[in-house]
Write a structure and sequence with these properties.
The longest helix is centred in the last third of the chain and has 25 residues, at 157-181. By secondary structure, the protein is mainly alpha-helical. It has one domain (50-227). It is globular, with a radius of gyration of 22 Å. The chain is built from 9 helices and no strands.
Length: 232
């Protein structure tokens, strides 16, 4: 009985805490001062057709750097915990069942398409909805399909480590170039802004998003491989 009372009190507390948000929810008639400044200035400042990209990559670039760092820490933690030794899995235990022919055939067809689509997403993030994190997740999905189609397969850790390290170094390097050659960290105006709406526009934003996409894809691929639980 007491347990039910505590649950009801907890639910009532959550309802009371979130009730004001329910009344304030909805679309405002017009954006605030900060949002208006972003909408008006980002096409002129960075020649980015996607305003969200200009905000994420440039205006709040330090936040994005923190998100990438958090993802790296999570990947390192999963890789450290989910090993064969820590999970107590023996060398001979756990014979994996072979994947179906449908899954293997679909994987062979979809892998290349998913990788190209992921690259398209982060290379066009300054023009259309998408970006580095979304494109990296799509690329990691291709890796997941291959792990499901071949349960005994393993990710090439050397290649993934190289991609992750180089993309991370490129991301930080582009950020520092913005600090020294432009107006601040990750300022994309280190390269010519080009014409609004063109693929070669928005300065260094396509390069920044490509570095983020490759880094996220490599980190998530390593995490997926670690979740199999057979890492040495």
């Amino acid at each position: 009985m007491m347990r039910k009372v505590m649950v009801m009190l907890a639910l009532a507390g959550f309802a009371f805490a979130f009730l004001p948000l329910a009344f304030m929810a909805g679309v405002v008639k017009e954006p605030g001062a900060l949002a208006s400044a972003y909408l008006e200035n980002s096409p002129r400042d960075f020649a980015a057709a996607n305003v969200v990209t200009a905000i994420v990559v440039s205006y709040r670039g330090f936040d994005t750097l923190g998100e990438v760092a958090v993802l790296f820490a999570a990947t390192a933690g999963v890789g450290a915990l989910l090993t064969r030794k820590r999970l107590g899995v023996s060398e001979t235990a756990g014979n994996k069942r072979e994947a179906t022919e449908i899954l293997r055939t679909a994987t062979g067809i979809l892998t290349g398409l998913l990788v190209m689509f992921g690259a398209y997403i982060f290379m066009h993030g300054h023009l259309t909805p998408g970006g580095g994190f979304q494109g990296g997740v799509v690329i990691a999905t291709a890796v997941l399909l291959n792990l499901l189609a071949s349960p005994g397969a393993r990710v090439a850790h050397g290649v993934m480590t190289a991609v992750e390290s180089l993309s991370g170094a490129t991301y930080v390097g582009l950020g520092l170039l913005g600090a020294f050659l432009a107006w601040g960290f990750l300022d994309p105006r280190t390269l010519p802004l080009g014409t609004l709406g063109a693929l070669a526009s928005a300065g260094a934003i396509p390069l920044i998003y490509s570095a983020i996409g490759l880094k996220v894809g490599a980190e998530l691929s390593g995490m997926l491989e670690a979740l199999k639980g057979d890492r040495e």
